[in-house]
Amino acid sequence: MENGISAEKCRNSIKALEDAMYVIGGKWTLRVIIALKDGHTRFNDIQRTIDGISAKVLSSVLKDLEENGFVKRKVDIGVPIVVEYELLPYAETLQEVLSALVSWGEMHREKVIRKQEELV
Amino acid sequence: MENGISAEKCRNSIKALEDAMYVIGGKWTLRVIIALKDGHTRFNDIQRTIDGISAKVLSSVLKDLEENGFVKRKVDIGVPIVVEYELLPYAETLQEVLSALVSWGEMHREKVIRKQEELV
DNA sequence: GTAAGTAGTAACCTTTAGGTTAGTAAATGA
DNA sequence: TCATTTACTAACCTAAAGGTTACTACTTAC
After folding, report:
1. Which protein residue's Cα is closest to nucleotide D27 at C1'?
2. Where are the alpha helices (DSSP H) in B42-94?
3. pTM (2 decimals)?
4. Which of B1, B90, B94 sits opposite A39 (nearest CB)?
5. Which residues make beta-bridge pairs with A74?
């Protein structure tokens, strides 16, 4: 385990893991991405879709998503002004992570439920 | 999008996602799992392996991992008492999540670096 | 005339994960 | 003999993520 190459590799994997968690590990980040995927493109629409999120938090999540290249903010200057948030292709790169997390989460929940039933 | 079945499915996926993030989303959780995978089984050994983790935090992470069925705590009553933490097979179910996160993190970092280089 | 919707921001507060320091008690090493 | 190692725990503190409330200025609907 302690030869140079594999230790280096291991450190890189950990770094990558932490980078990923930093970007998508927020409480609301993935939910906002899912809402956008689901076709909700406007601020209040997204907020209504995601139960419990506040305007302040949604605003900051959207800014982070923009900075990270997941989302484009489009402003239509009209009457009234309409702002739309559009998922960029880069968001699709998360697909594997998302589905791995979802299927693990489902599996884990079933396990937890089985365990609880055993205790009854 | 708004028919009953797919909305229900969507809500379940989100729930699963949140469950997963709740279990593995802590700052140190995945790193502790990796250290255990790497063959570090004893408390101080793990702590030395993971740069920056405190005894208090390691202790609580290990307790959570035990509760979630990832880890078994084994006590050898001898002189001195030796405690060993052993990864259970259940931890292997995380493999897909881990590798998806690592490869996404690597890809994302490269993208960020490229972007920074463009700016120079 | 007033309520509600548009997309947010400002100021403030709370919660909690995590960090810091110190200490246990017995054993080994220098 | 003094420091170090073992596996932690207790008490305390901090930072930051997130929550709450109120407000903007304009428009449409009732």
Report:
1. A80
2. 43-49, 55-67
3. 0.92
4. B1
5. A84
pLDDT by residue (tens digit) across B69-117?
999 999 998 878 899 999 999 999 999 999 999 999 999 999 999 988 9
Coil/strand/helix, residue A49? helix
Q: Which domains does chain B have, with CATH numbers?
A: 4-87 (1.10.10.10)
The C-alpha atoms of residue B14 and residue B10 are separated, in whole angstroms, by: 6
Q: How far is the CA of A100 from the C1' of D11 (A)?
A: 40
Burial letters for B28-66: b for 16+ Cβ neighbours within 10 Å, e otherwise?
A: bbbbbbbbbeeebbebeebbebbeebeeebbeebbebbe
Could you count the other beta carbons within 10 Å of the beta carbon of residue A72? 12
At B106, the amino acid letter reads E
pLDDT tens profile A62-115:
999 999 999 999 998 887 889 999 999 999 999 999 999 999 999 999 999 998
